[in-house]
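Worked example 2:
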Amino acid sequence: MLGLDGAAEMEPSKHPRIVVLDDYERSLHALTDWSDIDQLADVRIHHSPMYGDVLHGALVEADAIVLMRDRTPLTAELIERLPRLRHVVFTGTRNTALDLAALAARGIPVSHTDWGPSKDSTCELTWALILAALKRLETKFATMRSGDWRDTQPLPGVLAGERIGLIGLGEIGGRVARVALAFGMHVVTWSPRMTAERATQQGAVAVSLDELLSSSKVVSCHLVVSDATRRLLNAERLAQMRIDALLVNTSRSALIDTQALITALHAGRPAMAALDVYDEEPLAADHPLRSLPNVVLTPHIGFVAQPVFEAFARGVTECLRAWLRDEPIIRPLTMN
């Protein structure tokens, strides 16, 4: 098995080649037993992002590809250039960067894993970002580490009694709502198909998007991306937000017009943003978001947690074992 990027090439193998992409956390092989798969296949694991010809070179002799979520797009153009490809596995149940039609045209089966408790993990990160931003923890940490005691930042507020607007109230949004209620916040919500009954079941009140944006201290995104929600928060809608508002996105970057958000943050409306997802990942070292003082950033870790990756590792090996027996596991897909 080739376990490290850049290691020397192995001698050609008669076994099928399995290529694992984007295992940034070096977790998939560490969290479950691959010994039987290693004996039956030539497994190559890559821990860093790859693009263009480098990516193609890593995949061109692959019989099976394992994708970590949708970190690397598997496009029709790339699939066409992979003559040996016979199987694809991805972690989770949704992959927005996978061309299913191109795979189906080749008769290539697609398997996926369970999520594990990733929705709980994403809810927890959402609240970590909210608290870090509103309590200005990043500057407080830096102040203490520098040997100082207090900084000159404005005094933080209190969440109790404030309004949080949840754009989307599904499995993650509902969890976020329950925490907000525990903090003593008033919860309002909107989505394209929201009803008053659905909102009430989660302790929230359904309102228009205009009201949510103009009245909420915290606005948090928890929608999937569709034609109706892509770039939902554009310049016009960002300008509706409170001047002291915090915008949080642990869902999908395409819900927000990033350039419009950068412009809005420079102008001070909203006052702050806390982001875990980006249009291109990893986020470029010189991306303007990195230099804004009123932004809290994390490197897309909403789903990154030990029990989640244990479920991913078990699911990947289960799918690969089944494929090696010529019995691929095909589960329902959630692609939107």
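The chain has a mean pLDDT of 94. The chain has two domains: 17-116+306-324, 118-297.
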